[in-house]
């Protein structure tokens, strides 16, 4: 994963509806293979940086000041599609746990700017948007995603709290 994909992935893991342990999501970061580090110091530095960003995401969301890491093209345009693809990849780790958000009339729309940036297997819009609608969302996505992430985190946190109270 490149940094923007990784940031989207970590964001969904961190704020998602269900706790996912690093032992499950780190292999996805490495593409299903064992990472090759030169030595223990390099391994600790890389893992430390990943976990540091994970914790930073949690703090930013808690303080309602989330700043995603988007790729920027040479002209300075923010490209959020890689970030969104990483987010969607993490959602795929626990698809059933994301269903309540998809089904929520009030909060389900928080996913639209993120999923609209994802492409299907043929390279078209994952949501089946026409080119004009897709272009419009892409133009606004960098501005929309921080608020969407905070809203998704709030939704997931409230559901986790409600489920925890029910199980006691």
Brief digest:
With 168 residues, the protein is mainly α. The protein has a single domain (3-167), classed as Up-down Bundle (Four Helix Bundle (Hemerythrin (Met), subunit A)). Helices cover 63% and strands 2% of the residues.
Overview of the molecule:
It is a single chain. Helix content is 63%, strand content 2%. With 168 residues, the protein is mainly α. A two-stranded antiparallel sheet has the order 1-2. β1 (71-72) and β2 form a beta hairpin. α1 packs across α4. The longest helix is centred in the last third of the chain and has 37 residues, at 131-167. The radius of gyration is 16 Å and the shape is globular.
Topology diagram in text:
Blueprint: H1 3-15, H2 22-29, H3 40-62, E1 71-72, E2 78-79, H4 81-91, H5 95-103, H6 112-116, H7 131-167
Antiparallel strand pairs: 1-2
Helix pairs in contact: 1-3, 1-4
Order of helices and strands: HHHEEHHHH
Provide the low-confidence segments as ranges. Answer: none
Strand content: under 5%
User: At CATH's second level, what is the architecture?
Assistant: Up-down Bundle
Structure annotation, total helices:
7
> How many domains make up the 3D coordinates?
1
Radius of gyration: 16 Å
CATH topology tier name: Four Helix Bundle (Hemerythrin (Met), subunit A)
The CATH C-level name is: Mainly Alpha
Q: Report the mean per-residue pLDDT as an integer.
A: 87
**Biggest sheet strand line-up:** 1-2
Largest sheet: 2 strands, antiparallel
**Helicity, in percent?**
55-70%
What structural class is derived from the secondary structure elements? mainly alpha
The end-to-end distance, rounded to whole angstroms, is 39 Å
What's the total number of strands? 2
Shape, principal axes of CA atoms:
globular
